[in-house]
Amino acid sequence: MNAQLIEGKVVAKSVRSGLKPRIAALKERGVTPGLATVLVGDDPASAIYVNSKIKACERLKLHSEAIQRPAELTQAELLKLVSDLNEDKNIHGILVQSPLPDQIDELTVTLAIDPRKDVDGFHPFNVGLMLLGRPGLLPCTPHGIIKLLEHYEINPAGKEVVVVGRSNIVGKPVAAILQQKAKMADATVTVAHSRSKNLADICRRADILIAAVGRPAMITVDMVQPGAVIIDVGQNRVEDSSVEKGYRVVGDVDFPQVQEVASYITPVPGGVGPMTIAMLMSNTVAAAESITSEG
Predict the structure, then answer these.
(1) Residue 253: inside a domain, yes or no?
(2) What pTM does this model have?
């Protein structure tokens, strides 16, 4: 068996295409969806992530504001900036890039963002709606995973899903979404992690295995049920002197081996990654629709 690739770039393009008529309808009403990205400090990886989000806005002709502040920024100054963006009628989505410097409490900043503009889907108000199965702004990577499954007609209903990783960004929310009584859900979900006993046995039960633990090639072929669907969320840099950059990006799954036994698998890069940004654009458009419909 050689697994079929789940190509995030293809699905992300489909998501963007679906957004275009909605953006056009908003513009006919005089509204251009606007996203503000806030970068504190000069972390190179964070700068790359922010730049990719700005380019995604440009591709869809959305309004975007890239705000950069020095690493010495105080929490009070950042909260004032967030407050100003909350009041800015040209901004419908606010994204404060993580990680933040040590002097700033991330939760305090998240709580300061207007939940209607929380396009990351991290505000407790939106997390609560997600857990209740109510409409709201969903975290981008988990929502992107659902869209991937939907595009490839992989219905999780009644299937056993194992999520390896318990982060607030991916593991917990994707587990919460998949166990809802809803379309593209109704799964039996197990959340495992690096400290789970008999992790290999747990993983082998999975019809759909979602790896989001942040360790290169942690999921090996002996941990995978033949025919399983593999969603690899990992983005790990490993040294590689054979390439110009000196490193390559790999996932949490031992791709060369696991693709021989899986039915579907996401590559890294090019799998889940493009979906995260596509769903950020989707959340920005949805936020603009919701905010402007309130008058």
Answers:
(1) yes
(2) 0.95
- 195 and 248 share one domain: yes
235 given a catalytic annotation:
no
Catalytic (active site) residue 147: no
- Alpha-carbon distance of 175 to 172, in angstroms, equals 5
Q: Catalytic annotation on 181?
A: no
Catalytic residue among 114, 120, 207, 232: 120
- Tell me, yes or no, whether 91 and 188 share the same domain: no
- Sequence-ordered list of residues with C-beta below 8 angstroms from that of 132, at least 6 positions apart, any chain: none
Which alpha helices (DSSP H) does the chain contain, by range?
A: 8-28, 44-59, 75-87, 106-112, 124-132, 140-151, 171-178, 199-204, 255-258, 272-293
Condensed to tens digits (0 to 9), the pLDDT of residues 137-194 reads: 999 999 999 999 999 999 999 999 999 999 999 999 999 999 999 999 999 999 999 8
User: Mind listing the pLDDT tens digit for each residue in 196-225?
Assistant: 999 999 999 999 999 999 999 999 999 999
Give the pLDDT band of residue 295 (cuts 50, 70, 90): low
